[in-house]
């Protein structure tokens, strides 16, 4: 990701020393890859009801649109970006 950012900066002339990109590219293969794991999930009905209760209790600490999004999300099964961008 750093190489891509620096390449963008070089393309639009924000970067004075373009050799930095080439220096980083030689180490690109040596960088550790992120590990893929399973995401946390709730499958038990008791845990789901507990989560919904906690969302309702936390409503006062959040902005109104965020509170509504949290309340709607478990029922419509949308990704966060789809929920925020919906009309």
Give a brief rundown of this model.
The chain is mostly helical. The chain has 5 helices and no strands. The chain has 2 domains: 1-36, no CATH class; 45-85, no CATH class.
Any overview of this molecule?
The chain is mostly helical. It has two domains: 1-36, no CATH class; 45-85, no CATH class. It contains five helices and no strands. The protein has helices at residues 2-11, 19-25, 45-57, 64-76, 80-85. The model has no long low-confidence stretch (mean pLDDT 79).
| Class from secondary-structure proportions | mainly alpha
> Please, how many helices?
5
Radius of gyration: 22 Å
Helix content: 55-70%
Q: How large a portion of the residues is in β-strands, by DSSP E?
A: under 5%
Which H/E pattern describes the elements?
Answer: HHHHH
CA distance, first residue to last residue: 33 Å
Overall structural domain count = 2
* Count of β-strands: 0
Main sheet? none
Mean pLDDT: 79
Based on Cα principal axes, name the global outline: elongated
The stretches of 5 or more residues where confidence is low (pLDDT under 50) are: none
